[in-house]
Every structure is written in structure tokens, then in C-alpha cells.
Fold these 2 entries.
Entry 1:
Amino acid sequence: MLKFILFTSIIISLYAQEPISPIPLESGVNRDKAKLGKELFFDTLLSKDNSVACVNCHDVSQGGADSNVVSIGFNGKKGNIQSPTVFNARYNFKQFWNGRAKNLYEQVDGPINNPVEHNLDSKIVEQRVNNSKLYKKRFSDVYGISKIKYTHIVDAIVEFEKGLITPNAKFDKYLRGEIDLSDNEKNGYKLFKQYGCITCHNGINIGSNSFQKMGTFIEYKSKNSYPDKESITNKQIHYNVFKVPTLRNINLTAPYFHDGSAKTLTEAIDAMAKHNLGVELSKKEKKNLIDFLNTLEGEKPAILESN
Ligand code: HEC
Ligand code: HEC
């Protein structure tokens, strides 16, 4: 018994020192609400001409993002920024690249009202869902209501999003002491800490818990302009400042950066090293960093498997 206590306390103390923590194994969501939210997430009913659903730009079979440089929405119109993943978004300290929504509830309003995304408003969404016999029944079963309000619709979508967690990544199992990593993967993690990637990419989402400048060392220039933090605060110090993106499932969500300018992980790492650390990495270092980043792919969210 004493041995066991000693062993677990060593594991716990080792674990507590790591700057990254694992995704919980269970999402704890209300399954009925989340399943209803899943139907809405896949439904084009939420867009003006019935052509766009959330899943168009957040492909949950492929990392929760899309493969376009900037996303394409209503009427084939181009959006103004890369679509981030919805996986593990519940752990983001703010939502959107510039953090303008403080949580997932506030976030949903964004795409529904955005003229280049769903191009609708809450009243019409409410009407449409109320006009659907199927949703009438589903909301009545799940929420016990006969008149569906916009807030119920948002609530169901958010419950689904909260279920979109990807536990049991190889790296999380390593953190829990269940498995070991290969030498290359471990070396990649070591480099990730030594070079200081970890100063911006840390915590449960390995990012998504602070705003940082793209180009802390060497200025970064995009071809177009994007809604950075300056676009909200009008402060020049916020030029090119974005929420640090999560690195979970990063092998699945190319292209990278707010402007989708990096087509591969190697390109993204090169740009990070240059613009945000002021260093140049060797081929082997890049390879090991990618070996480490590949260990961050988790299991598909359980909520997607259930009917
Ligand atoms: C036309 C493509 C498109 C559609 C449709 C779309 N999104 Fe998005 N989504 C984006 C883009 C692009 C962003 C980033 C916008 C920004 O940061 O300014 C985003 C951001 C998000 C975020 C924030 C993630 C983060 O890391 O900040 C969440 C959550 C999200 N969308 C959920 C949804 C939901 C729910 C729907 C359906 C109601 C939806 N999206 C529909 C493209 C889309
Ligand atoms: C000073 C903070 C900072 C440091 C240090 C840093 N990053 Fe980043 N990282 C960011 C920010 C901010 C972005 C978003 C940049 C953008 O979209 O323009 C980002 C984006 C990324 C992306 C693309 C994510 C996506 O979904 O588009 C990858 C991959 C990445 N970083 C890996 C690394 C690696 C590997 C290192 C170390 C070699 C590193 N970062 C160091 C802040 C940092």
C-alpha cells in the first residue's frame, strides 16, 4: 500500500511539473442535447439558401477544420480567415482567432449571422426550426418544450461542441505514465521546450490560452489583411496579434496560420522558428518536432460515433 501511495505521488508530482496536461477521458455532456446539436451542426437549414452547414467548414471527419486557405461559405463567397478546428474548442480561453467571443455560446452567433457564412439571423433560424416537424419533436423530447427559442438551438449546438474532445493522444498516455514515446518523439518534445515553443503553446490545448504576436522576432507580412486583435482594439501593438492556436490534432488540419499560408507542418515550423523565435532549425530538429506533434492526435470524439 505504502509503495502504491509513493508510486502514485511520484507520478502525480512528475505530471504536475509538465506544462501540458491531458484531455479528460469523458466529456460529461448531456448526450441527448449533444446529439440534437450534432443534427443542427450538419444541417444546411441554418443557412440562408440552405447550402451551408457548420460541418462544411469544420469537417469533423478530418480534424474539425477545413482544407481551404480561407473558408468558403454562403454563395461560394470567400471568408476572410482560415477555419480553426472545433475539436477541443471548449478548452479555448476565448473563441475566434482574435478572441472576440468569450465562449462557445457567444461564438455560435458569429457564423449564423455572418454574411459570408450562413447569412441568417436568429429570428429566421428560430422560425425555420419551429417550422420543422422533425425538430419540433426532437426539441420537445429533449428539452420538453413546444416552442423552440434561439437560445435552445444555441444550447444544443454548444453541447455537441463540448462533446468534441479528442482524448487518449499518444502524448496524453505518455503524460499519464501509461506508455513511453520513441526517442525521436521524446527528442521533439525536448526541442519544443528548449527552443521555447512551449512558452506560447502550453496547457491542456497546447495553445489557445493567450494572445501572441505573429512575428515577435521578425515581422510577418501577409498578402491580405485579416481580423487580428488590432481590428477590435484599434491599438497598433495588437497588429498581427492572434489567439495562439491549439496544436492538438495538428497533423490533420493543414493548411496552417490565420492566412492559411503554410501548406505543411514543416513550413509552419520553419515560419514559427523564424518569426517567433528568431532561429533556424536543422532538418533533423524539424523532423523530430513533427514526430512529437504527431503524438498529439487524439481519438475521434466519442459523440461522433454514437447514433
Ligand atoms: C463558411 C465557413 C464556416 C461555417 C459555415 C462555420 N464556420 Fe466556424 N469558423 C469559420 C472560420 C473562418 C472561423 C474563424 C473566424 C475568425 O476567427 O475570425 C470559425 C471559427 C469557429 C469557432 C472558434 C474556434 C476557435 O478556435 O476560435 C467555432 C467554435 C466554430 N467556428 C463553430 C462553428 C459552428 C457551431 C458553426 C455552425 C453554426 C460554424 N462554425 C460555421 C468558418 C466557418
Ligand atoms: C511567441 C509565441 C509563439 C512561439 C514561441 C511559438 N508559437 Fe507557434 N504559434 C503562435 C501563434 C500566435 C500562432 C498563430 C500564427 C498565425 O496564425 O499567424 C502559432 C501557430 C503555430 C502553428 C500553426 C497552427 C495552426 O493551426 O495554424 C504551429 C504548427 C506552431 N505554431 C508550432 C510552433 C512550434 C513548433 C514552435 C517552436 C518551434 C512555435 N510554434 C513557437 C505563437 C507562438
Entry 2:
Amino acid sequence: MAGITSRLAAALPLTLPLTLALMLGAASAPAWSAGAGAALETPRIDQGNVRSLQSGARHFINNCMGCHSVEYSRYSRLAEDLQLDETDVEANFIFTTDADGEPTKIGSLMTNNMTKEYGATAFGVKPPDLSLTARSRGTDWIYTFLKTFYLDPDRAGTGVNNVVYPGTAMPHVLWKYQGWQELGEDSHGDAALTLAEPGVMSPDEYDTMISDITNFLGYVADPIKETRHSMGVLVMLFLLVLLVGSWFLKKEYWKDVV
Ligand code: HEC
């Protein structure tokens, strides 16, 4: 017994800094994955807001899914989590067909028909699957990316560039809504974007739209986040009740000893 205790005591100075380093590392991980240099903006999003997720899903399917899949999600799961009717999802969200030419079924994964070859020919690189992008890049990055496309005549293919992803192969697919921005300088001489030609949405409406899309991509990357949080509260309550019970039990056991 003494051997184990002393061995544990010897290991403690080693394990403590290691545990702390791991915890701090985990906490600062999103900062590392952020784009170097450019300041990221944080959208006001809430994964518990089902209306925002519904709107994000609709915008994503209408504007992004032609190029990007979210191949770890199923339409049926989407319907359940977003409180949508399966027949509505089939009618309004599914535009693809399967290998036999039949409309994609509600239980299918959310893929699209873009091949690697086509993507590479059209854009130089296949538009990536976005299932886990909210984890790899972070939601701030996605939001700022969607907000900071600007006109750049030097970019032959798309005519646009992006502040957080310079030289990106993605065109400004939401131009109709946001309009066209230009890169200039503010009064302090810092780089700033100005709206050269407005789109059909006001800047506020556009922000709401891209926040909803970002929220949706956050949900796709971590669909059980809300369940986990409510489960966490229950677990804490259970432990609290257990603590009270154990404390009285301990008092009962020790009352004749001390
Ligand atoms: C016309 C095709 C096309 C459409 C439509 C499109 N994208 Fe893209 N997207 C691309 C391409 C190509 C890339 C790869 C860019 C690169 O690596 O330079 C990309 C990259 C991205 C990335 C970066 C992924 C990463 O980790 O590097 C995100 C995020 C993204 N797109 C989000 C969206 C969203 C959200 C929409 C809908 C509003 C959308 N895209 C619509 C073609 C498209």
C-alpha cells in the first residue's frame, strides 16, 4: 500500500502539468484553426434556436448544396432534429436523384452529384464536404468567410477574393443577396470593405442569413450538442442528490466513532 502511495506521489508532479497543458491546449484549439492574420467576427448564433436552423438548412440547400455535400447527415435526421415534417423535407429540400434516377429518399445521406473530376475542372479543386468544417475551421471563420468576399480584378476565374481565405477558388455565390464589396481603407488606414453595389438584402438581413447558415453548419458538425447540454444538467443534479445522501450516510456510519 505504501509502495503504491509513494509511486503515485512521485507521479503527481508529472501528471499535473501534463493534465493542465492538455486542458489549456483543448481550450485554445479553435484559435489555432482560425485563419492566420485576419480578424474573425463572431456571429450571434444559438444551436437551440430551431427556427434559425430551419432557415439555415433552407439557405444551405438552395445555395450551397449544388457544390458542397454534408455527407454525414441524413435528411430523416434533419427532419427530426429541426422539427420538420418528412413530407415537407422531401418536397422542399431534396432535389437530387440516386444512381437509378429515382428521387433521393428521406433516409439518404445529404450528398450531391458533383464528381471530383467535375469539381476539379470547374474550380481547380473539388468543393469540400462541409460536415465537419465548423469543427476544423470554427463557426467564426465560416461566418467571416461568407461575409468578406470582395471584387478583385486580378482573380481571373471568379473575379473575387476573400479576406479570411485569400485566393479561394469559391465564387461569391451569395452576391445576389449581399451585393458586391470592394476593398479599401478606413480613416485609420486599415483595410476595410465597402458595399459598392447593394444586393437584394440589407446588410442586416444578409448577416442574419449567413448567421443561420453558419448555425446550421455548426449543428451538422455536432448534432447532439443540445442533448449533451441538457443531459449534463441532469447528471449534475443527480450527483448533487447523491452527494446529500452520501453525506448523511457518512454521518450515520461515523456517529459512534467520533
Ligand atoms: C459553385 C460552387 C460552390 C458553391 C455553390 C458554394 N461553394 Fe463553398 N466552396 C467552393 C469551392 C470550389 C471551395 C474550395 C475553395 C478553396 O479551397 O480554395 C469552397 C470552399 C468553401 C469553404 C471552406 C472549406 C474549407 O475548410 O476549406 C466553406 C466554409 C464553404 N465553401 C461554404 C460554402 C457555403 C456556406 C455555401 C453556400 C452559401 C457555399 N460554400 C457554396 C465552391 C462552392
